[in-house]
Amino acid sequence: MPKDTRLLEDRLDAIERRLEAIERRLTDGVPALAAPRPAAESEPPVALFEEASIVSVIGLIGRTLIVLGGAFFIRFITEAQILPQFAGTIVGLTYALFWVFLADYGARKNVNESATFHGVSAAMIGFPLLWETTLKLAYLTPMQSAAAVLVFTSIALAVAWHREMRSFAVVIGAPAAVTMLALGFATTTLPPFVTALLFLGWATLLLAYDRKWYLLAVFVALVADFAMLLAAVIRLVRPESAAVASLGLVVLCAAHVLLCAVYFGTFSFLVFRRGRNLALLEVAQVIVVLLIAFGGFIGVSLAAPELRTTLGVLILAVTAGCYVGAYHFLRHDAERNRTFVLYSAVAAIAAIVSATLILRGPPVAIILALAALTCSAIGNRERLVSLGVHGALYILAAAISSGLAWGTVLILWGSSPAPELWTRPAPWIVFLVSLTVMLLQPGRRDIEFERAFRRARLPATILATIASAALVVSVAFGFRSEIAGGEVTASLILRTAVISLAAVLLALLSRKERFAQSKWLVIPFLLVAGTKLLAQDLPSGQPSVLFGSLAVFGAALIVAPRLLRVRL
Known about the structure:
Layout: H1 2-29, H2 31-34, H3 46-79, H4 85-108, H5 112-135, H6 142-163, H7 166-186, H8 190-211, H9 214-237, H10 249-273, H11 280-303, H12 308-330, H13 337-358, H14 362-382, H15 385-402, H16 404-413, H17 425-438, H18 447-456, H19 458-476, H20 488-509, H21 519-540, H22 543-565
């Protein structure tokens, strides 16, 4: 049996080789048979198909015009009082909804192109009708109008979601958002329409995540952002404007809270409950929403100081939530680093805004300085560079709030030692905190972390250096508010010398690894000293000033670069 099987396999192999040889001959000798060309009638009618598609679109446009003609016929018999006004309005809305349900029927029959044109018809009938019913005929109050627009849009979007018709959702959702915005300002009754618009924004977010319809969600989000920004600006800049007559400050704050809840709240739910990493568009929307909200809160606090504390506590809650979310849930998740950066940045900015709203005067600077010290110390101990950056932001905010930033600049550049700066506790506390942060030493050896953390300490180093130089000038003149006429020459030389000496000391410090970040400040301080020499010392024309300032500045130009060359 095995022998017979082998003979049979050999014969089959021989037959296959002969067939291959015959095929090669036929292919070489008769190419037409090897690659037969399909008959002309079997070629796909590409041109005919494109022509049929164009004809179909033109037909759908024609049908849409007939539909619009039906809408105008309803309007005609209503204006001719054949139908009562209210009945004509109901018939018109029913007519618009009829085409929404026809779109559902068309999608069920897989005629999506026809269904989309049905959606266009419904939008072109429904939204203008609601506009006229609200503004021209006044059959609907603003509250009823906002509800009617929202219900009509919700029914259409539900049909689009059920039948997975993205184009239908766009042709309904986009004009709905614009209609809500326009009706809000046209009726001078913004609250109901803003609420409806934000609800639409939330609904389109759900559609985007469920059906991947991001274009509609982005468009509605832009309209909502623009509406809130425009309403806040008009209300705060021109409160007498009729467009915002119904928009009180408390209502405006509530609208900002709702805006944050719709977008920031939804994104936070996805981040902390679903484990998602925010996309770039989501990050951008969070930034825009919080800028509008925080800006609105600050504007409201200026217009109504009695609301400052309430708004500050509200933002403080956002600060706490963002800190917990960033450092408890996102800190060790490398895949969601973008989201961690966003929430940690929001926490820092919200903390500064809340401190500014809750506190007044020197306590703001003191609290921010203590926050800078806390963040820098914890970041140094736990090796968290982001907290070091937070400390830098807080120390800069504290310096501005306490007057230390501008006061020291005036001392070094102006003609007065400005003693009133040193009579308040806040500048001293900020100055001492900046020195402490500058001198922080890492608890554990980690070269990569140390380099990053040194960059985060750079603002504290700048502030400590400038404040120290200003303090030297103030001490030299005995903290006097005015200097005598004969002391002007000494003042000019001393200020140039102090700035130049600061550059040399920074260069000297940079030779130690612990203060290596100081090397980035040497050239800027030399440039400031040179600018002062050109702007103040040379125009004075006094030989003694020119001699002293040029000698000191020239020596700094020689010594500082040499100190930067070698590091111990």
